[in-house]
Structures are given as structure tokens and as C-alpha cells.
Amino acid sequence: MKWVEYPAFNFKTAKLWAPVNIFFCGMLFTGMASLQFNSVPMVTVFKNITNIIVSIGDYYCFKSDIEYMAMLAFGVMLGGAVAAAWKDITITFVGLFWMGANCFCTAGYVLYMKYATKNVKLSKFGMVFYNNVLCTCFLFPVSLFRGEVAIFLQTDALHTMDYFVKNFFAGFVGFFLNFASLNCVSLTGPTTYAIIGSLNKVPIAIFGYFLFDNIITPETWFFIVVSMCGGFLYSFAKIRTSHQKTKSIK
Predict the structure, then answer these.
(1) Around 156, how many Cα atoms within 13 Å sit in the side-chain half-sphere?
(2) Nearest residue to 31 (alpha-carbon basis) of 20, 21, 19, 44
(3) Strand runs labelled E in the chain
(4) 102, 46 in Cβ contact below 8 A?
(5) For 97-114, what is each residue's pLDDT tens digit?
(6) What is the pTM of this model?
């Protein structure tokens, strides 16, 4: 029926797309390393700082307009994260290094993904295809070197139908997450993508409360409310800018 068509693998295209995967793998590695040396509230604070870095990169790399209401939304979300984490703020050189590296990799991933979606001539399904193939090429040798493949093959608990179904579901959802991310960056921009990425902490906290009986502390509730206010403020700024552009065209 040809609903989905994947392109033939091309090394030139793979070379252009590879930085997306390099930044993505770096983002995962530095994110896990930063959690070892920083508290979760500290990581949340730096994630909001990353949004500001992405916005600056969006301005310089793609000539996006700086919206003052959007900057105010960043400030509200960052201030809320700092206030919620105030009692847990501890800074070490190693922790600061890994968080700085994570900010760099995350901003590079989002900004280069915007560049790739604009300049690499692929369909969205083709982008997902290259994303998954290249990630496998980068991560499989690392998993072999660390012995994780051997552990997987030797652990009987990982060869059950229950584990297969859960992994299949995770991969199924991951495909649509990848597809949605590429469309979001392509149709909107790195700044909007970064803001949406920050706001996903809100449903995660709420679902965790209902599904896993996680306790939501007053500080977390405060952060949720402030994040939602920042998100609404950013949405208002984008809608207002869109209306102004429409009026100027007319």
C-alpha cells in the first residue's frame, strides 16, 4: 500500500545525519553521569538553563526572533526550579562538569536536529530509519565492550514473553516519540521543542503519583504549578506573535 517508504541506505546521508546521533548518545551518557554526582533537583535546574542556551542558539543559528514574553516564561520556569531545589542545591566540580557537558550535548542535539530536518532531504520516516540505524551502530559496540550483550544472553529472566511484550511496547512508543520529536523540531523550532521537553516533567510526576504511588512533595507541586504557568506564558507569547504576523501579512 506504500503508506510508509524507507530510503535505501546512503553513506553520504548517514554522514550528514550522524551528528544528531552523536549528540544524542552524548546527551544520554552525560545525563546518567550527571545524576551520579548531582541531586535530581539540581539536574532539573540545569535542564531549564539548557532551554535558555537552546533559545540563544536558535537566535544565532536560525535567525529566530527573540520574544520577550518567551524569555519571561524561561525565567519563570528557571526560578520555579531553583526555588523547588533550594534546599538540595549542592555544587561540586565533577557534578558541574557533567552537567555542563549535558547542557552542551542536549543543546547541540536539538539545534543540529533542526538543521538536519531542514537540509537533509529525507521523509520523516526516513529520518527515523537513519536515527535508529546509526544509534545501533554507535551503541551496540559499547554494549559489547561493557559486557551488557553477554549479560542479556545469559540472563533467563530477560527471555520471557512478559519481558518481550514490555520491550516491544517500549519500542513501539519510542518510534512515535522519535517521529513526533522530528516533526516538532521541523514544524516549530528548537526553542519550542525545548520548552515542551521541560513541560513533560509535569505529566510524568502526575502519572507516577497515580501509577506507582510516588509521593509528590510540596516542593514538587510548586514546581509543577510554576512549570505550567511558564508553559502557558510561552504558549501565549507564540500565539500573540502568530497573530501579529498574520495581521502584518493582511
Answers:
(1) 0
(2) 44
(3) none
(4) yes
(5) 998 899 899 999 999 988
(6) 0.78
